Amino acid sequence: MASRRDFVKFMGRTGLLAATMAPFISVTGNSAMDILLNAEEGQIPFKPLAASYADELLLAEGMNYDIVLSWGDKLNDKDTFGFNNDYIAMFPIQGNKHDCVMWVNHEYTSERFVSNFDKKAGIAKTLEQVNTEMLSVGGSLVRVKYDKKKGKWNYVPNDPLNRRLTGLTDIPFAWPEPIAGFTKAVGTNSNCAGGITPWGTLLTCEENYDDCWGEMGQDGKMTDKKTVWGWEAYYSCSPWHYGWVVEVEPFTGKAKKLISLGRIAHEAATTKALPDGRCVVYTGDDHNDECLYKFISDKPNSLETGTLYVANMEKGEWIALDYSKQEVLQKNFKNQTEVLIHTRKAAELVGGTKLDRPEDIEIDPLTGNVFVALTNNTPKGNYHGSILKIVEPTRDSLTFKHEVFLAGGKEMGFACPDNMEFDKKGNLWFTSDMSGKAITGDENYKGFGNNSLFYVPFSGPDAGKVMRVVSGPVDSELTGPKFSPDYKTLFLCVQHPGEYSTNEKLSSNWPLGGDNIPKPSVVAISGPSLDKLMK
Ligand code: FEO
Ligand code: CA
Ligand code: CA
Ligand code: CA
């Protein structure tokens, strides 16, 4: 476990920067050195929030929020904004930072709120209810504009760029062979976090697909038929069609499933271009005792072909999941397609290290170091999780060093790190994802309050402090933190507020209050405190 002192000790990253800055260009297009020169050693302009159990979205002083989009908002005549918003990506239209297409993942549905299906009533779910649930997942592409007069981001209803990808949208596999006999899948689901490619497409990650379609072994027999939603009563979809990274063109909605990146419970897909234009992608398998992966594309501007590697932490090596080179894979699989469909098994066979649920991954814009949220592993007694730091000598290196960057726990005031985002100063923002029931019902999480957004400055007198900036409403998880292209607004999703409501009582009424049902929503956070942090 890293102590505060350990953490501060390796905060001094200027030395590393000199050696590593050349290949690392930030998402803003500024070089690492520009960012470093801009970083002032200022005081934090707010008092961190205390832990709270209030059914409110609480913000540190000097910050306020507007709601940009809520579940059910009409995008056009046929499409509505889906449920349980997660990853956010922003795509400026013709370079205009105040006029963008926003992508938002919709991770999973709700029987209580979306389809009004009551398991306890003993009546089978109808096809109409299944369709409603399947249409509520996937992702939304929505035009959003900044109104300078009102100082507010709004979405543009009926804009031709507004589109949905849902659990029912046909999506082809980007692979020369069929997958489980088909060249395309019915829809995308379980869209958790994601990433943006250097060529401006977005990656949306299919995580807990087994909740929708179960799991199937190498012999084609179902190994797990226990789905959460029961969609299989009306649709016959192979589990092999899900658990992929899906690449989407933000201005057309054209999508494809990238088989090359393997089939796991993908949380995120974080990219970086190599100097020769090929692309590196880091991705984690959010499941107890599953692995971390690195992919290196064969060509610039495409992730369709390349090599997938799994991390062996003991050796500090990325090991290729390459059928043509690994005897153990040749013994256990028919070909590379089978290796990629059963990535977890292949990773185990070549010596991938079991980790404590790798979630989001972000790359430090100053040093190029890779940060991985390891949220927890409760069967192993790891309740509070940590953030791992990986240091590679070069971006395409097959060796690395690693250490614990931050460990969750009572002393540090957070547990279960999940989504992360670096700001333009190179400071870290991260959300927590304690399970809704654990927040009030598990002694191990007592005193942590509701799930929150935290800020960790990497420089200045408060370097290394973990500060709570936003506290979510009851049962919610804050997801998808993403800065606007001008860094004046922080977009944030409030996912699954009121998830543990009962027929008798709603546990949350956020955001409308009163007796209203809760609604997952995207908020835009701004204000003088955020301005000061970005100055
Ligand atoms: Fe969907 Fe791993 O969070
Ligand atoms: Ca997550
Ligand atoms: Ca992120
Ligand atoms: Ca999570």
Structural notes for this entry:
The chain has 535 residues and is of the alpha+beta class. The chain has one domain: Neuraminidase (6 Propeller), CATH 2.120.10.30. 13% of the residues lie in helices and 33% in strands. It contains 11 helices and 33 strands. The strands form 8 sheets. It has a 6-stranded mixed sheet, with no helix packed on it. A hairpin with a 5-residue loop joins strand 12 (215-216) and strand 13 (222-224). The protein is globular, with a radius of gyration of 22 Å. The chain starts with a helix and ends with a helix. 49% of the residues are buried. The model is unreliable at 1-41 (pLDDT under 50). It binds MU-OXO-diiron and calcium ion (3 copies). Residues 107, 192, 207, 267, 286, 359, 418 line the site of MU-OXO-diiron (FEO).
In the CATH scheme, what's the topology name?
Neuraminidase
Oligomer: single chain
Strand content: 25-35%
Q: Categorize the overall geometry.
A: globular
Taking all residues together, what is the mean pLDDT? 93
**How many beta-strand runs?**
33
The spatial strand order of the largest sheet comes to: 9-8-15-14-11-10
Indicate the CATH architecture. Answer: 6 Propeller
Largest sheet features: 6 strands, mixed
Ligand identities: MU-OXO-diiron, calcium ion
Per CATH, the superfamily is: TolB, C-terminal domain
| CATH secondary-structure class | Mainly Beta
Distance between the termini: 33 Å
Instruction: Please give the count of helices.
Output: 11
Radius of gyration: 22 Å
- Which bin fits the share of residues in helices? 10-25%
